[in-house]
What does this fold into?
Amino acid sequence: MTFFIQSLFVVIPIFTLLIIIEEIISRFIGKKINRATDMVSSLSSGITNITKDGMKLSIVIISYSFFLEHLEVFRLESIWASIFLAILVQDFSGYWLHRLNHRVNVFWNRHVIHHSSEEFNLSCALRQSISETVHFGAVLMIPAALFGVPAKIFSFLGPIHLFMQFWYHTKLINKMGWLEKIIVTPSHHRVHHAINPQYIDKNYGQIFIIWDKLFGTFQPELSDVKPVYGILRPVKSWNPVLINYKHLWQLMQDAYHATNIYDKIRIWFMPTGWRPKDVALNHPIESIKNPYRFKKYNTPASYLFVFWSFFQLNVSVILMFHFFTIIHLQSSLWNYYYGFLIIFHIFAFTSALDRKKYSIMTEFVKMILIFYLLFKQDFMWYGLNQQYGYLLLTYSFISLLMTSYFLKDIKTKIVY
It folds into this structure.
């Protein structure tokens, strides 16, 4: 079991506790920061991302180890000096990759899920990508390779660096005095997630804000400009799987409709949001012109439906943790089966949140998949006793019935 997966058994409970504390405090001070359906979507997105990482569905074009082997000119003797340099290089590369994801059309698809929430809270921090499968960031880590920083340091530092970006996704912490000059704070990151003209495409830093100040992308939060969150082309969905690929699908459509061959090619590498003039004219898409007047996405959901959706979410969490405990015992093929089922399960119940009619079919397909996997394992679920297999199959049948019921329950009210 990798360090990343081991750390999840500690980090996920901590994150969950902090999300609960944030909600309690917000209710106590009368500040609305969460919506139930948005939270389900955010947490579900986190599960899809972690599951994808567990399945190792990634391609590394060039690795840090390659640069370390071929470019090392001097090896730092002090481990602490190596760790210090590694932290700086990790954050420097994170800044530029983050900026690249925002500024180039094709790379925006890797990051759009993180900005898709129209709220700003700790749970939205967990909106992480499953479409980011090609990695080339090691190119930006060459300075560490030159000084012989061991690859093992980055294997431990990478997850820690990622987890340290969780805490500043909140409205509950105001400006933090002298720390605002050094590290990324909630105030800085509120600016980053905002779509106000004054704020958009600012504050790419992940741990240190110094990179933004060095490279001209820093913007402080203004007292007279309240941040409005989301993206300029609203996704209008709670389904994290669809959100992950919506921008890519739009690019594919635009490239297809473009009449100029040059436009078909360059659209992928143009600034984010760029479309050929003929495509924009003949195939307009919704875009937010005035961030202060747009309506947040919402769908009808009764309290019972919200409760059921959180139950479905918890089923995902249980399956994910079980998946990680047996991942080293199974073949890659069976791990792919399990991981795909978890992601498909999330696709199914978040489709119901979107009130899509095809969610009934997805629940039916999910039930068939579970039956097939149980059948191939003599009704034992990945090493568990048959009683767990039958329990999972029963759950999938109930899930189909409940989804059918809630989709027909058109009188439900919106729960905020």
User: Anything to note?
Assistant: The radius of gyration is 22 Å. The mean pLDDT is 95. The beta strands are 59-60, 134-135. The CA atoms of residues 301 and 415 lie 6 Å apart.
